[in-house]
């Protein structure tokens, strides 16, 4: 377990938190075009593809069992910056009792979007102690960011849409791992 913790912390620290967040630059999303400015009825010119935007799904990632209150989820761990940026993009299915967790090194305000994500998802913004702060439903392919209200978000958990509601999971519910509290597993040197 120590090797897993060290790997997770080092990877997250080195690559930082990218999440399924829109790129920091104002590059238009992949597949958009710009109309010619000469006013002619010409075909739209395709925008250049941004190499930072993923073009294929993550392979199945390392998993860990999470406990969300009394319910368990087999959870893929998006640990590297690229894994976090790609998230559930291009995936075609997610089982009811599966999820994806996005840990970060520091708590901050988070924003997720659904670019290239065809599955309807729900997400929970989680504080450093593992308590769910906010829950949102996300619509497929919606590129509007869903920003957390709180600036104290350290983990984000994505599930099938409606999973939290179907399982009576509300803000305040604590999330932990099969190895103990989130903080202890992902940030073992912090108090």
Please sum up the structure shown.
This protein has 191 residues and is of the alpha+beta class. It has helices at residues 2-15, 81-86, 163-166, 182-186, and strands at 33-34, 45-46, 63-68, 71-77, 98-108, 111-112, 121-126, 132-138, 146-147, 153-160, 175-177, 180-181.
Report on the structure:
Helix content is about 15%, strand content about 30%. With about 190 residues, it is of the alpha+beta class. It has a single domain, classed as Sandwich (Jelly Rolls), CATH 2.60.120.1140. The strands form 3 sheets. The protein has an 8-stranded mixed beta sheet. Helix 2 links the parallel strand 4 and strand 5 (about 100-110).
Structure characteristics:
globular; 191 residues; Jelly Rolls; eight-stranded mixed beta sheet; 4 helices; two-stranded antiparallel ribbon
Main beta sheet, described?
8 strands, mixed
| Rg | 18 Å
Order of helices and strands: HEEEEHEEEEEEHEEH
> Percent of residues in helical segments?
10-25%
What fraction strand? 25-35%
- Helix-and-strand structural type: alpha+beta
Number of domains: 1
The residue ranges in which pLDDT falls below 50 over 5 or more consecutive positions are 1-48
- Please state how the strands of the largest beta sheet are arranged side by side: 8-7-10-5-4-3-11-12
**DSSP helical segment count:** 4
The CATH architecture can be given as Sandwich
Distance between the termini: 18 Å
């Amino acid at each position: 377990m120590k090797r897993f913790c060290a790997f997770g912390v080092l990877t997250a620290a080195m690559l930082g938190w990218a999440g399924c967040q829109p790129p920091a630059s104002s590059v238009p999303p992949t597949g958009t075009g710009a109309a010619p400015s000469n006013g002619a009825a010409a075909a739209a010119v395709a925008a250049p593809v941004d190499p930072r935007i993923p073009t294929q799904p993550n392979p199945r990632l390392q998993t860990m069992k999470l406990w969300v209150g009394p319910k368990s989820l087999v959870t893929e761990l998006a640990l590297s910056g690229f894994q976090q940026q790609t998230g559930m993009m291009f995936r075609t299915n997610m089982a009811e009792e599966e999820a994806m967790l996005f840990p970060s090194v520091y708590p901050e305000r988070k924003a997720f979007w659904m670019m290239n994500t065809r599955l309807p998802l729900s997400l929970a913004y989680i504080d450093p102690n593992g308590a769910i702060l906010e829950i949102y439903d996300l619509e497929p392919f919606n590129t509007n960011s869903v920003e957390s209200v709180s600036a104290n978000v350290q983990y984000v958990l994505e599930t099938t849409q409606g999973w939290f509601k179907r399982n009576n999971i509300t803000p305040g519910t604590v999330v932990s791992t099969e190895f103990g509290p989130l903080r202890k597993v992902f940030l073992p040197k912090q108090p």
